[in-house]
Design goal:
about 600 residues; alpha/beta; Gyrase A, domain 2; five-stranded parallel beta sheet; four-stranded antiparallel beta sheet; 23 helices; binds arginine; arginine--tRNA ligase; aminoacyl-trna synthetase; EC 6.1.1.19; arginine-tRNA ligase activity
Length: about 600
Amino acid sequence: MSVIVELVTAGIRAAFPQLGEEPVDALVSVPSGKVSTDAMYQSNAAMRLAAQLKAKGTKMPPREVAAAFTAAIPKNDIISGYEIAGPGFVNIDINTSFLEGVTTKLLNKGVLPPEHTKQPVIVDFSSPNIAKEMHVGHLRSTIIGESIARMLEYIGHDVQRVNHVGDWGTPFGMLICHLRDKFPNFQSEPPSISDLQGFYKAAKKRFDEEPEFKPRVYEAVVKLQAHDPETILAWNLVCDVSRREFQRIYDRLDIDVKEKGESFYQDMMVEVVKQLESAGKLEEDDTAPGRKIAWSSVKKETKVPLIVVKSDGARCGMTGYTYDTSDLAALRYRASQATWLVYVVDNGQSTHFQNVFALGRDMEWVSPKHRVDHVGFGVVLGEDGKRFKTRSGDTVRLKDLLDEGVERAGAAARTTEMTPEQRARMVEAIAYGCIKYADLSHNRTNDYVFSYDKMLQDKGNTAVYLLYANTRVHSILRNPEIAKQNIDIDALAPSHTVTLTHPKEIKIAKYLARFPEVLNRTIDTLMPHRLCDYIYELTNVFTEFYQECYAVQKQSDGSVKVDVNRLMLYKSVGMVLEQAFHLLGIRAIEAI
Ligand code: ARG
């Protein structure tokens, strides 16, 4: 695309010398499926240029501006023609020979990632809380975060996948004390997670109701902060119970995330508070004795401060830190480790992150060179439009949600000859693929409606539709006639030169060539639905291609013609689809 940007910019400069050194933007993009053009690129520069020219005294309608700069674009062997549409959009089409080159490279070398300078990136995602069930909000974070991490890794960044689990604070004092009382032999018989939740509720009840329990809890927290070995052991046991449950979900969904929970920043919080104190950022809060708050430079926007020190600290002879403090410490630490920090956490925490990031910048822990993103997302809704709940109104357990997905996918799957193991793998790929894709294909900032019925449909923008298309590619490539004629596609692919003649061949090649640009945009905006939109369009175009362009065809004389070049195009489609599936965390299936 950069070549096109250069050419269009050159055209603009040549057509309008009166703009002098004034910056101009070629505004080149890849038209999305909603635009009724098969052009490869589009420039939306004319509208803005018309305004710039007007300011310089040249009145010219955008369509004329478009005509003038396209006429001035230097001669080249890439662009084949222009079309001016609507108020002044320029559709730019490119030469088939250029496209053939792009497709040949894709086929020969594989789906290469767009080039980027390697950066250390931290992606904070999933991040459930110990002793609590991982809920659908964490599922969204897990799915989106995994996909973003895969994309960043693919383009060559050095990615740390961080699970910021909630594993610290007063609740753990309660859990530890209650554990000691109820399960004296807890070391040999660890309780299960559902127990652990009820267990936490019971511990909390005692904390609220039993006067002699409270001081023990505070003592346990102090001991935990002081790394007392016996207390740490009990704490680890509690954490392990949850950890195992989380890991079961991660294993099922192919999630890779390393635990570095709130506790990891424990000692760093002391330093953070010290620094805030000496920078004069800490204020006593009048409403609660002992509580210390800090305002960030976005005070006007957020209207709430960060709570850095808890009010109940003094009561138990320790400084009580909060979720805010741990995030400040985490930010400072992460900024020393990476230049790009990504936080995949629900929209409900956006004020929190605005404040944390702003204070981090105010304190210069985060430099202007750092990129810090809160990748927010909406809530999961049931089909009734209300928060996703079970029929009895309870929160849905992720295990049950995945189980039901597998059950429903099993019923929807087509039956072919497969071993039970193959079939189980296929059904899982469909179920988890559908759950992930339904999440990723929606603009993440919106709430989304969770519906098995919708996500398992084989038409429309669903994983099933895309997975089926890919199995079609594979079944064409498996056609027995190919082997009969001694054609080895995999052996030929690295050196085959693609030719494009049929209009649908040209069209599919254009869509294949867009992949790197779409990926760049997806990563720039951290919006996975852009990649989903793209593969959905690609699949639609593939369906047209598939209907019109046969690769293996019986001739009138009874012989069978195998069109190797077409097979190579099929193979290229499969390569791009499978790369995209991988980036979305979806397992491809070859047969169904
Ligand atoms: N444990 C938190 C929750 O369940 C999410 C943590 C997100 N990450 C962070 N750095 N705050 O709400």
